[in-house]
């Protein structure tokens, strides 16, 4: 159970390198940060001692990245204290934090692609001779340093010629200077191969032994339990736990991150999803829409489920609406297969970094991966988003702002955007018809806007999401991929979106639902496929879809609840998985995608 | 934990995937880097072989002497484009520099040198501050600079009706006279520019800004300061070019310099600098300006009956070919 933050824990193995009474190398006390009224951090505490590796955990949106950026001078806290070796500091720029001895490896690799490896390594602190950069010394030093990281390359070659793993190592070598007393690593392993991860861990151990403090962010639990001494868990911008890593069982760590109490029975329903499949109802006025929209080649209107008779779908589910098999890419996905029957909602669960979004993107053809994707039993041969959309797949992307709405366009334009080619006759689009469609969706989805001409950027997050849903519904998709459809929208809109998902399923659409919210997965899905480190870890069907089962599957110990510690066999098993061959299929996948 | 660590040897491991570059990719990279030089040599060789009797030192001095000042615009532009920006004001600043030099020369040769440099440096610095701290698009800021500098020029000369002359015996005139003095000055400035780009942290910062500005900030590099400096540098070089031009012509001419910023951009891009920023070389720009000058000369010589229209058409076609080649090389590397 959660202990209070900062509580000293003498029993922890962290005592190895850290004297218990030593002052904190880096400390954040009750730091608060908000962006435009949205609280990213409400009251975050972090205490890292010299000579320890400290895990910083939390799901997406918990505030990890914000906290790191506060510690490294990218942002400044609204309130609270940041202290380095016992003295309070206020870093105004990343440079000040670096000078003070905080090195950071950010999540995205920060290298200049066209610049040589050596120059990247020494960017901003080049060795000089007569006031000018001493290239020869620089290249020699660069080779020596990289050698220590197991990277043997031509250091005069531009950095973009290196593999992703090697690039990550260069970024790492850049950040880790001999005088760094605090090293912060934000998901350094996300693009590394298992062997490279071990090299990284060797470096981390060296740092720890020489008394540096390391803050380590990762979503791979195996890695955390292997390398970290202590852990701090953030949720919703608050520190909810801080203590020894080994004293925190996996299941408990995950329930802390997700905010689900393991013990409390979950009787009350918290989502707006129908209790079970037979109670889903299609929207009443579908027939009206059927006339508005052109019959797509695989439009669901063509053979629509009779309202209230959703079980009829089960009989014709010999053909899956979506059938995915053997999705494999270079780093993230390994042999992911799943089926979605018409009228079925399949949840896709997994912790951050498990490959959920990548799976959805691979299905759409936006993420290069080998494997086959079929819609209604017909295989999509050319794997690109255009072909996937034509085949009847629609995807609501996770990042609404970057990949979804076009903020400067009106509600009307956003809705009909994807459907325009099909609504046009000889290249001319009837405005009257557009208006009827837009009006229909604005009513049906209850999009709150001053009118169809209002710009989407002025709408709330929930209404933006509904506009996106409407855009895809215009296309009569057979399969809908929903990546975090209710993230960042208010409670009312959330319930409405959940209701719409049910309606769509009742109308015969196959839905793949990705959600970080357990309740949404449990109550919204007929089945749940759980991913862990890029492969399918568990498939839960019908009554098996319960919170305890799901948590166990996410944690990766199938042995059940209350298991005290990280089973060693589990570690071994997952290693053999992750060390498996993978490059063969990946090449093929890229070929397909290009 | 012990399961994994026990398998790990203590010696450093070599990452087999460390270098992903295939021989073909390396060839492409070299082609990109040396391309401008190869083309320059090829064009010169072809011209010499085609008419060996005509190729002479006088050709060289014509090619070098006539245009040398203008190349400074391309030098400044190289730095600006490397950061991912653009400086449209240099053509106007070139003309402004010439007029200011002629005006200053009546009070002494030192003022003839300092006045254009200081004014144009200040002009560039203001543009840089607007770009770096004001968050404005470089295109717009320097477009305003282009118009503004022209306006200032008109005001200084009463709509062009006043002409400032450089006194006949001022030693300032010698800076622009003949072939080798101006070429020497320009070459020295290019050499300094090369050192700045390749052998200082500042050059690396410029490249980093163009490559990925956000990471440059995160790496703690002085991004804003470097940006202000780059526009200041570009303005100063344009002023210097104008001063040298004024010395050569012996007077401040208000009508020159129109469109020179575009020629400078063309030379920089032909030299292999990426218009999107993140990669730029001074050596490439030297090849770019020489290539344009050689082509210009060849056209003058053999196609003069078609007039200057032909020069522009060939320059344009050449630019298109170079950018297409860049795009093709880039794409074939991605594949």
How would you describe this protein?
Chain B: Keywords: Cell membrane, Membrane, Transmembrane, Transmembrane helix. Chain B: It is found in: Cell membrane. Chain B: Pfam families: BPD_transp_2. Chain B: It is a multi-pass membrane protein. The complex is a heterodimer of chains A (594) and B (335). Chain A is an alpha/beta fold. The longest helix of chain A is centred in the middle third of the chain and has 16 residues, at 194-209. In chain A, helix 6 (194-209) links the parallel strand 9 (182-186) and strand 10 (213-217). Residues 1-20, 262-267, 295-317 and 558-594 of chain A have low confidence and may be disordered. A six-stranded mixed beta sheet of chain A has the order 6-9-10-3-11-12, with helices on both faces. Chain A has a six-stranded mixed beta sheet with strand order 18-21-22-15-23-24, sandwiched between helices. Chain A has a four-stranded antiparallel beta sheet with strand order 2-1-4-5, covered by helices on one side. In chain A, helix 8 crosses helix 20 and helix 17 (461-473) runs parallel beside helix 18. Chain A is built from 22 helices and 24 strands. Chain A is 34% helix and 20% strand. With 335 residues, chain B is an all-alpha fold. Chain B has one domain (55-334). Helices cover 71% and strands 0% of the residues of chain B. Chain B has helices at 2-5, 23-50, 57-67, 71-82, 90-105, 109-132, 138-156, 180-199, 201-211, 213-218, 223-249, 260-270, 282-302, 308-334. In chain B, helix 5 crosses helix 11, helix 6 (109-132) packs antiparallel against helix 7 (138-156) and helix 8 packs across helix 9 (201-211). The longest helix of chain B has 28 residues, at 23-50.
